[in-house]
């Protein structure tokens, strides 16, 4: 595997490659990222993964400065997973000037849920992803379903901007107790880690309730929030939405058409998770 820091060198290395598969990341990699790389590997073309902690998608009070930078370890893990090129640009390389041109995704999709609680987050994500796509020019890009809304926003961007890139979703990897793997799990204290299982537990309970015929979605969401609060969580949202557009479901919507998404804080750590219903 080659590690490349400059856009010019990356373009030279990929010249003439038709089926490049791309996995963008912010590093501090775990099995969830590596499963996306293996999924990309199985597609047959060269695999590029990027590691870039994107300042544009962090609000001033968020963890940009403390976000773990573990490039050496990330490179070893990527090599083991079959990655061909690690693209790890510096901020100066990717943002040589303050980024004045930005991608503003439609509010109906991007200003709800994560976008409501993290204003500007999807502008930062779309802008860096578009720029990384320009650098890598992949045929396929793989994003984890763990960031469900992000996957939908990127799919929508690629479709509306007629970018010739297939967007593939990778399943969420979970620890033995059900906690979705996340780079931010490392922020949890031992006591918080023990409580963290409650988030996926509540999502599973909601899935079962809807599958059993429950259609009072607001009551189901409220019960999950109450159960999380009782275990020390502070919720941003627990929301049952339609998979197609992330809007609130109608009573007639049922299993196969829905997803439940949640974001909540344990202490200072904010975790997100979702399950399709
Ligand atoms: O999901 C992430 O890690 C980031 O949002 C991404 C897609 C790499 C853009 O910075």
Layout of secondary structure:
Blueprint: E1 2-4, H1 7-14, E2 21-25, H2 31-41, E3 47-51, H3 71-81, E4 85-87, H4 91-94, H5 107-110, H6 114-117, H7 121-136, E5 140-144, H8 148-160, E6 166-170, H9 190-211, H10 217-230, E7 233-242, E8 258-266, E9 269-276
Parallel strand pairs: 1-4, 2-3, 2-5, 3-4, 5-6
Antiparallel strand pairs: 7-8, 8-9
The structure holds pantoate (PAF).
Query: Residue ranges: pLDDT <50 for 5 or more in a row?
Result: none
Number of helices: 10
Helix-strand makeup class: alpha/beta
Please provide the count of β strands. Answer: 9
Main beta-sheet annotation: 6 strands, parallel
Radius of gyration: 19 Å
Global mean pLDDT: 97
The amount of beta strand, in percent, is 15-25%
Share of helix among residues? Answer: 25-40%
Please tell me what the overall shape is.
Answer: globular
Distance separating the two termini: 39 Å
Pattern of helices and strands: EHEHEHEHHHHEHEHHEEE
The distinct ligands, each listed once, are: pantoate
Lateral strand order in the biggest sheet: 1-4-3-2-5-6
Short description:
It is built from ten helices and nine strands. With 277 residues, it is an alpha/beta fold.
Detailed description of the structure:
With 277 residues, this protein is of the alpha/beta class. Helix content is 39%, strand content 19%. It is built from 10 helices and 9 strands. The strands form 2 sheets. The protein has a 6-stranded parallel sheet, with helices on both faces. The chain has a 3-stranded antiparallel sheet with strand order 7-8-9. Strand 5 (140-144), helix 8 and strand 6 form a beta-alpha-beta unit. 38% of the residues are buried. The model has no long low-confidence stretch (mean pLDDT 97).
């Amino acid at each position: 595997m080659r590690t490349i820091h400059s856009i010019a060198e990356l373009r030279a290395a990929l010249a003439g490659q038709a089926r490049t598969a791309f996995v963008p990341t912010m590093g501090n990699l775990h099995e969830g990222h590596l499963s996306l790389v293996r999924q990309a590997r199985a597609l047959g073309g060269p695999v590029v993964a990027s590691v870039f902690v994107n300042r544009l998608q962090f609000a001033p009070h968020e963890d940009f400065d403390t976000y773990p930078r573990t490039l050496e370890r990330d490179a070893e893990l990527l090599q083991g997973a079959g990655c061909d090129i690690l693209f790890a640009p510096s901020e100066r390389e990717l943002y040589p000037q303050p980024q004045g041109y930005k991608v503003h995704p439609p509010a109906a999709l991007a200003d709800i849920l994560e976008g409501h609680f993290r204003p500007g987050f999807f502008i930062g994500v779309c802008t860096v992803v578009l720029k990384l796509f320009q650098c890598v020019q992949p045929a396929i890009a793989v994003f984890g379903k763990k960031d469900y809304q992000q996957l939908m926003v990127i799919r929508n961007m690629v479709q509306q901007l007629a970018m010739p890139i297939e967007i593939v979703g990778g399943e969420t990897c979970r620890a033995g107790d059900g906690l979705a793997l996340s780079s931010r799990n490392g922020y949890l204290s031992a006591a918080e880690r023990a409580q963290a299982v409650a988030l996926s537990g509540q999502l599973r309970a909601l899935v079962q309730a809807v599958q059993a015929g429950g259609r009072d979605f607001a009551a189901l969401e409220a019960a999950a929030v109450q159960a999380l609060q009782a275990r020390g969580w502070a919720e941003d949202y627990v929301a049952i939405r339609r998979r197609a557009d992330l809007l609130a479901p109608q009573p007639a919507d049922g299993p196969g058409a829905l997803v439940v998404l949640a974001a909540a804080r344990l202490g200072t750590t904010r975790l997100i998770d979702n399950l399709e219903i």
